[in-house]
Amino acid sequence: MRSVRIGVDTGGTFTDVVAVDEQSGEIHTTKTPSTPANPADGFVAGIEKLGDLDVSSIVHGTTVATNQLLEDRIENLGFITTEGFEFVLEIARQSVPDGYGNSYFWVKPPRIVPVHLVKTVGGRLDHTGAEVRPFSEEQATEVARWFRAKGVTAIGVCFLHSYANPEHERRMREVLWREHPEAVISLSSDVLREYREYERSVTTLVDAAVKPAMRGYIASLSNRLGMPFSVMKSNGGVLSAREVVNQPISTVLSGPAAGALGAALIAATAGHPSVITLDGGGTSTDVAVVVDGEPSITTEGSVGRYPCKIPMIDIVTVGAGGGSIAWISPEGTLKVGPKSAGADPGPLCYGKGGTEVTVTDAHVMLGRIPPHLLGGEIPLDVDAARTGVQALADKLGLTPERTATGILEISAFNQSNAIRQLTVKRGLDVRDFPLVTFGGSGPLLACRLIDILGLPAVVVPRDPGNVSAFGLLTVDVKNDYVRTYVTRDLSLGKAAEIFHDLEHQAGEALDREGFDDPVYLRSADLRYYGQAYEVRVNAPAGEIDGDWQAEVIERFHEAHEKLYGYAYRDDPRHGVEWVNLRVSGIGPINRPAIRPLEKAGTGATSVRAVHFDETRDTPIHQRTALGPGAKIVGPAVIEEYGSTIPIHPGFTATVDVYGNVEVRRD
């Protein structure tokens, strides 16, 4: 029996499964509809579709935590903080969405924990971690009993300056264990040992909020699988399920992170080390930038309206998927998304009770996707899509074809705006980057994105609907650790002590994962004295001495100049301030090899009426029948099991040696 490693990515519409044969390297893929009521059902169904296999390991990309935050399902959550700081969540930050021109109209959203569920405990540390006032055991006991009486079972604890000394938070946890044993607890010193009280508080509370759901889901899945498995993290690494339940916030961008990493590996193998990745699903589209083979990492991310200051791949998400709903605004204009029909009931053409026109319905009505999905497993109701688009067109006073084209045009501009956020707004020229597009709906708008953004090319990998699941099998085990150390006069001894401690923590975690030869990557956050925010740079390994310090500072100058166009290398009036020291502990794995496509398969070319600039009989090519060097001139459509690539008039698609389809304007 074949021994395989399996990657399972649970999306909003489909659950994608990839299996890699450990002996031959052969890759098998499949998809199954997601089951939002219980994601584990879709997970197990997807694995069962692969047949009888000897499974050596499973890696999972999950949306359980993400969906809970995006849908604002936060309840039964309490917050304990330092006496006198009970309004840290209410005060928050001064930033206003869309700038200060919106400040008269913007209403601050509800806090993650309402004021009446915030409690304080006496005791105080200073910024060095020294105790100013002793921890009040009496108040802590009262608070724990109050939460128990209220039935609040998820509690986040964030005391002032606990990043420098976690002692008071740990004593609070001991009191909660004693007085309220049913409580699920998150300490800020465990979740994010970094300064900035508001972000640390919210990050800790998000961790506490998703812990019950994640623990229940992981436990249920473990029982059904009967074997250990790993879970994808937002930082581009994986962690065993038994460990991830203790830090569930690390999974909030689980699936999108895997997609960016899988696409980065596929693109680099094909000779494109720097690309934009676009993962188009049924509910949303996720965009990332890859430079020299590595997706950019940020700690300034958020999920929904909640800032999550943990290391995560820098991804922008927009509600522009295949299930995005087309609607008419009160002003009478056509809009698309962000609301989605999801997997259930789904678009009109699914025939499962959907009542609103979606992006998928527009594609079906125009003939750009076949009248079925997954190679015929899911038949589509073309007449239902056409009837829905016709009704919408009547309200707008347009033809059905014009209405459907308009829906797709708006969706393409929504996606292009997400790409601009990660490129143009950050000083990158979007015209320098090919776009790697994947996911079930990702390749559908490839030609329009080339025109809108001036992209040099769009690359569509083989089995694009399963790239995220494939990416799960390409990532190492990875844990991130941080310690705030704000100083303009770096003590090399203190820095060495902090790095040694962080590496020791990383080593212990990787030892539990079975790695006896881990890799440690150092980095540091620096800024010019007086600045509010810092720039992260990689720090060399080896002895921490004067040369090491000079190298890190020079890297900071270079990074600052690249980001902002200036640096103060030779200006003594602008000293460099160290803010955070970081360590990533990595347990390397063997990545699956991406093999060249040796030859084409079989599959007849057919003809179907497709509307681009006009409705005409258009060649329909089966992707499996296209070998290396094959060239398709638009108008045409390339179909495969999990996705479709419409080739508009004036565009040409070619197949490279690895089976990727490269689309370019003639």
Automatic annotation (TrEMBL):
Q: Which residues form the Hydantoinase A/oxoprolinase domain?
A: 200-480
Q: Which Pfam families match?
A: Hydant_A_C, Hydant_A_N, Hydantoinase_A
SUPFAM superfamilies recorded for this chain? Actin-like ATPase domain (SSF53067)
Q: Where is the signal peptide?
A: none
Provide the Acetophenone carboxylase-like C-terminal domain boundaries: 497-658
Q: Where is the Hydantoinase/oxoprolinase N-terminal domain?
A: 5-177
Q: Which domain of life does the protein's organism represent?
A: Bacteria
**Name listed for the protein in its UniProt record:** Hydantoinase/oxoprolinase family protein
Question: What species does this protein belong to?
Answer: Nonomuraea rosea
